[in-house]
């Protein structure tokens, strides 16, 4: 997991060449400090580039994709097969049997993988969507087999794995955050998070649901378009477009109501102009418009007078969740302008403007020049806010594919700053941002995570951020000197490290035992930091944490499937 610096000029292979050429022209011909109108004018001069036809649902296409999925299934390429079946579902026309057959095919994949709860869920979905009666027998046999196996206790949920929710007393006003964490201003990074009390290695101090999430185009058939969770087993298609899937009816309903009702009829055009997850900017604008009850004038009045006022999510009481109040705090974010990426941000905003004005509901509310100016400036502002605050996770769909991005925007979690010597692991997965302590934190210390590699990830290729790193590690007069202050491990700590290694390699210990063993080791021997063995253990620990969060999400997925099928 890392926090990528900026939208890139080229885009994971899905941007049609014409948009790519237009982008390159904007970036080479327009100065990055030119005003946004200059970018808009160039896009509008080549409007046909962003005016492609919308891809419609088609049973012919659905069948082709399903057959491609079958070939992958027979080659045991299950992940790729799931992607094809999901895409086929998105393409299937209303009431088409392809939808039901794809659910049944998904159940076959889960059956093969001994994920019996997930197989049952998909068989239930197939039956709810008019699965053809003439082939129902086959499905019934599989269903009986799944039920029997679960009765015999053959569930992957039997293995113990740690629960990764907040593990310490919570802040009464912000129940997804530990009590004793506050926002502070720092000279080198503006807002940040500070501990007001001591915390221990392994404490989970944040478990925040993203306000908005977004997935890169190649992930559209693998992750929920609303919460970004990787729940292929429960994905259902948007009934109206071919580019959105949801992990639940609830996510579908929420996204339709909050944002997707604007995007749905423009889904192809928006996909064409998105660079990784650059559409988070327009998404944030559309979300705000919904929260202002589609009243553009009211939104404009508030936003124009409070831009750059300085946002503070700690002024909110999350027990009585008010999404508009939260949006306003996000809107007020003071941004750190970065000239290197300004051109890309303006190009993204101008492209999304050219697409959004094609939405009849938006267009009809743009009755004055000020409305148009507000839309354009807002798209730029929210593209900057998104780039500044959102979390990016990188996902490899296969061993050969390059990473794809999924991003989440959070209110409190987004306040964390980067350090090359972090004290917290920030994990964005399943639409939630979690902070887990990598080492003890004392009252008064800033809470810091590594957006990319740490100083001890020596094999990781270097990462360029959209800011010049001024973290406490880099601010040392000499990093080597700082490293040299690390001690040698004591004999006892060395012996403990050998014991820890033995525990990690021993299958008799479960995940909970192993995680506790690493946490205890770090908690006990942190006085030797920075030291090589200890930092190698912290690297292993971070990987373990990622694995544990993934397993916890999978566990919840099986539980939700059981609840859906049996209750
Ligand atoms: C996710 S935001 C963190 C919250 C931010 N400090 C604020 O005031 O809202 C990321 C931004 O914080 C600043 N920042 C974070 N870590 C930094 C570091 N190590 N050195 C310099 N600036 C940093 C950069 O401007 C970066 O783009």
Automatic annotation (TrEMBL):
PANTHER family on file: BCDNA.LD29892 (PTHR47111), SET AND MYND DOMAIN-CONTAINING PROTEIN 4 (PTHR47111:SF1)
Taxonomic source organism: Culex quinquefasciatus (Southern house mosquito)
Record keyword Nucleus present: no
Name of the molecule in the record: SET and MYND domain-containing protein 4
Matches recorded under SUPFAM superfamilies: HIT/MYND zinc finger-like, SET domain, TPR-like
GO molecular function: N-methyltransferase activity; protein methyltransferase activity; S-adenosylmethionine-dependent methyltransferase activity; zinc ion binding
Keyword line: Metal-binding, Zinc, Zinc-finger
Keyword Repressor: no
Residue span, SET domain: 179-452
Pfam families found in the cross-reference section: SET, zf-MYND
Residue ranges constituting the MYND-type domain according to the UniProt record: 224-264
First and last residue of the signal peptide: none
